[in-house]
Every structure is written in C-alpha cells, then in structure tokens.
Amino acid sequence: MQSENPLIADFVRLLNSAAGTLAGMTREARDSAREHVREAMGGLDFISREEFEAAKDLAVKAREEAEALKIRVTALEAKVFGHAEPESRHE
Asked: Where are the domains of the chain?
C-alpha cells in the first residue's frame, strides 16, 4: 500500500482549485465579451432580409413608374409644343 504524502496532496488540491478558478475566469471572460458584442451590435441599425427585399422592390417599382412618367411627359410636351417626340433620353 502506498502512503499519501500530505505535501503532494495539498499541491494537487491547489492545482485542482487553480484549474477550476481558471475555467471560471475563462467562462466569465467569454460571457463578458459576448455581452459587449451584443451591446455594440444593438446600437447599430440592422434590417431583416425581408425588409431589405421589400425596400428593394419598392425602389424598382418607383424607378419603373418614374420612367413611365418621363415618357408621358415627353409625349405631352410634343403634343403641346407641336414638335416631334425626341428619342428616349437616358439621363
């Protein structure tokens, strides 16, 4: 039977305690870093993909309507001022 040296047993307990403390500190540091990132990201204005797609669709529709109105205005100007319709201008 092997007798246990009290000095070695104390040293092993100290190492186990230090390892537990280090693991706890690591968890706290990780959790703190995550919280800091969440706070930083919370201050930014993000939109969802659905909101982006809806805004994009509105922009496309507005562009199409503006182009249609430009064509109508050109036709009305030609009618009012009596000159031939100029070809479609791309500005």
From this structure: 1-46, 47-91
